[in-house]
């Protein structure tokens, strides 16, 4: 049996490992990755005297039901359980009105259970959230997060609280992002409750009950990472999967060939064909849509709707700066800064703290629909980020001893309202091709656990079909 995994990010790697675990050593599994390395948005770079993440920095340890997340389970399955590290602090701040203010407690992705508790951060319109005699959402309805919260709590709650929290995850705007995809617990509660405050309280209570069940043996950390960097996880999963890895080879077309599939791979001048029994397609939406166009045009069109945001990460090693005891901060777009978020790695993670007092900072620049700032050169972005961080932190940041810029062009999917329906339509259309499965952030959410779950589910789908 020969199976192709197109895409060597964590979703594709998780699919390859699950296939190997279930099929054993005799199955032929090949990972095709267009770039020169595996891992996708998981990349650890040498930085100064140590290392720093170039993409994702951590993963959720628990699922919403309190059970270990797919990422935590994966880490342990590949023998890295002893390398898991947890944040030394999770206290972050919002930059509002030229001051750093604690992110209010009792919110769900910034949407408050008690809108009157936001003193100093936002002034909600308390008269809007009235019970009109029915649920906020119909059973299958979806809408933008911003549209719902603006209608119920007013603009400031969105602009100063919800937007920066969503932007920190998706680099997108609350007015564009799907409620059902980005805050699913709130969407479920909104289909029952008649006010937004009640829906937030219900969603948070359900989450607390699940967390309590999962923490029966005691409190557990929310986030984790790998000592030595997340590239260790990439390498460990690839080794455990035992797949053939073909780097620098784009897959140019995908078509039916007898009872299986034919891939055309390599350069346009020197392509080659590969025939396989089954395929996991774990690449971003646009290349996925291109490959699907020869298989199912309707599915390809649904996949191709998804848009992406581009971001730049400015990394700096700064000698002995005057910094607050925070893991980082978020900056609302209405504050007028290019920097939208800062992570203070050397404060957040004990294992990255340096004895010489050098702080490791990573500033995120770039919001969906606002790409002008990303046209600047690396040196210009470093200067801009250093200047803005100095103003945000009310200090003068010393000249960095090491600094660089990591650019992720089209790196973060923007889930517009109706995303889940489109994904369901794609998978329904592909039911006619049971030995082809799609996986990754284009369908099932951002974050390492979501991508791992998506890759494993795609593998299970193929296993069922092949059986």
% residues in beta strands: 15-25%
Cα Rg: 23 Å
Strand order of the largest sheet: 8-7-18-19-20-17-21
The CATH superfamily of the largest domain is: FAD/NAD(P)-binding domain
What is the overall silhouette?
globular
CATH topology of the largest domain: FAD/NAD(P)-binding domain
Helical percentage? 25-40%
* Assigned CATH architecture of the largest domain: 3-Layer(bba) Sandwich
Number of helices: 15
Overall strand count: 22
Low-pLDDT regions: none
Mean pLDDT over the full residue set: 95
- Structural domain tally: 3
Beginning-to-end CA distance, first to last residue: 11 Å
Largest sheet: 7 strands, mixed
CATH class of the largest domain: Alpha Beta
Structural class: alpha+beta
Family: Belongs to the protoporphyrinogen/coproporphyrinogen oxidase family. Coproporphyrinogen III oxidase subfamily.
InterPro entries: Amino_oxidase, FAD/NAD-bd_sf, Protoporphyrinogen_oxidase, Zeta_carotene_desat/Oxidored
Main location: cytoplasm
Cofactor: FAD
Question: How would you characterize the overall build of this protein?
Answer:
Strands 8-7-18-19-20-17-21 form a seven-stranded mixed sheet. The protein has a five-stranded parallel sheet with strand order 12-2-1-16-22, with helices on one face. The termini are close together. 46% of the residues are buried. Strand 1 (2-6), helix 1 (10-23) and strand 2 form a beta-alpha-beta unit. The chain is of the alpha+beta class and 467 residues long. The chain is built from 15 helices and 22 strands. Helix 1 runs parallel beside helix 8 (231-241) and helix 1 (10-23) packs parallel to helix 15. The protein has three domains: 2-40 and 231-306 and 415-466, 3-Layer(bba) Sandwich (FAD/NAD(P)-binding domain), CATH 3.50.50.60; 103-214, protoporphyrinogen ix oxidase, domain 3; 307-414, Alpha-Beta Complex (Polyamine Oxidase, Chain A, domain 2), CATH 3.90.660.20. The model has no long low-confidence stretch (mean pLDDT 95). The chain has helices spanning 10-23, 70-77, 145-153, 155-170, 179-182, 184-190, 196-214, 231-241, 285-292, 297-304, 345-348, 378-393, 419-429, 441-444, 448-466; strands at residues 2-6, 28-33, 44-47, 50-53, 59-60, 84-85, 92-96, 99-102, 107-108, 111-112, 223-226, 244-247, 251-257, 260-265, 272-276, 278-281, 307-319, 328-330, 339-344, 358-365, 402-414, 436-438. Helices cover 34% and strands 24% of the residues. It catalyses: coproporphyrinogen III + 3 O2 = coproporphyrin III + 3 H2O2. Pathway: Porphyrin-containing compound metabolism; protoheme biosynthesis. Its cofactor is FAD. This is Coproporphyrinogen III oxidase. Residues 10-463 form the Amine oxidase domain.
